[in-house]
């Protein structure tokens, strides 16, 4: 019985270790770990057996091909489509990586698509297919130039909405821009097009793009004074076409919760995502984890042994009574 109890205790510890091991090292900083947010991650085939998604809703002209893409708009005029999470994103620090595709058969094309992290969800409107005067963060992948001299399109820009300010489509949001960059070649790229948005509360908002070469990430913007986002914010996407059109496809969404494993004094030495100025003793960290799990194993075995001994003692007492 002691041996079986010991094995059970070891099994519980092993399960705890596997659960902890699911936290992976963040690609940009060894002092930051990441855990996948399944509630905001979406991959093929996108839908379950009931032809619905457990964590996302979609509507408008959105079409889902379970083996290929979620098409927010097809290459047709006057279309609007959206995709929004059902539950809010509650992580304080997070990273969202999205593979998307913008394509079409016409030489003139538009209008683009948007990424949202907003207080409201799934409301159609005039801003890339979603509502105006939103509260939260919008990142616009604008492929059609209205009136913005000196700027090369496609243009990617972030806007922080306060719930009252409108997006000025006539000037492509020039006065509402928080940060942005030109991304020539984003449409019809020869490699999978992706964006990676990283947010550390009060520390960093960073947008990276992949469209030139595979695994070649271009920093679009990197702000060390990020905006304050709503505590309850839904993740979403939307797109629209007017007289000009394009296919706007979402291929996959990978969402991760980020948390720092360094001490507060270490975190002040540099901004998240940078290894400069940090001392990282892998051997020491590995040893601390080993000692931590050793203590758990010892504690579980001790509890298991005590329980078995107590059970045997009670059984012996009952036998003496008779």
UniProtKB/TrEMBL annotation:
The lineage of its organism: Eukaryota, Fungi, Dikarya, Ascomycota, Pezizomycotina. Keywords: Membrane, Signal, Transmembrane, Transmembrane helix. Residues 261-274 have a biased composition (Low complexity). Residues 1-23 form the signal peptide. It is a single-pass type I membrane protein. GO terms for molecular function: D-mannose binding. InterPro entries: ConA-like_dom_sf, Intracellular_Lectin-GPT, Lectin_leg. Residues 261-281 are annotated as: Disordered. It is found in: Membrane. This is Vesicular integral-membrane protein vip36 protein. It comes from Zalerion maritima. CDD domains: lectin_leg-like. PROSITE patterns: L_LECTIN_LIKE (PS51328).
């Amino acid at each position: 019985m002691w041996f079986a109890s010991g094995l059970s205790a070891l099994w519980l510890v092993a399960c705890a270790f596997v659960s902890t091991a699911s936290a992976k090292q963040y690609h940009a900083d060894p002092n930051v770990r990441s855990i996948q947010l399944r509630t905001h991650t979406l991959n093929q085939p996108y839908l379950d057996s009931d032809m619905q998604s457990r964590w996302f809703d979609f509507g408008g002209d959105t079409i889902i091909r379970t083996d290929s893409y979620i098409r927010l708009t097809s290459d047709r005029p006057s279309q609007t489509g959206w995709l929004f999470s059902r539950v809010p994103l509650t992580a304080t620090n997070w990273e969202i990586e999205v593979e998307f595709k913008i394509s079409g058969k016409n030489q003139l094309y538009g209008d683009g698509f948007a990424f949202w992290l907003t207080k409201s969800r799934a409301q159609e409107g005039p801003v890339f297919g979603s509502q105006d005067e939103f509260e939260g963060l919008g990142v616009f992948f604008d492929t059609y130039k209205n009136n913005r001299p000196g700027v090369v399109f496609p243009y990617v820009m972030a806007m922080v909405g306060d719930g009252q300010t409108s997006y000025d489509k006539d000037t492509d949001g020039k006065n509402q821009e928080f940060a942005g960059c030109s991304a020539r070649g984003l449409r019809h790229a020869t490699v999978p097009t992706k964006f990676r948005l990283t947010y550390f509360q009060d520390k960093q908002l960073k947008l990276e793009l992949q469209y030139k070469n595979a695994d070649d990430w271009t920093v679009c913007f990197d702000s060390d004074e990020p905006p304050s986002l709503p505590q309850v914010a839904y993740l979403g996407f939307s797109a629209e076409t007017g007289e000009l059109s394009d296919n706007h496809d979402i291929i996959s969404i990978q969402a991760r919760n980020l948390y720092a494993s360094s001490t507060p004094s270490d975190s002040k030495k540099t901004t998240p995502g940078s290894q400069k100025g940090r001392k990282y003793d892998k051997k020491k960290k590995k040893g601390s984890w080993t000692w931590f799990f050793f203590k758990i194993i010892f504690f579980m075995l001790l509890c298991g042994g005590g329980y078995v001994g107590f059970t045997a003692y009670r059984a012996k007492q009952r036998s003496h009574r008779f």
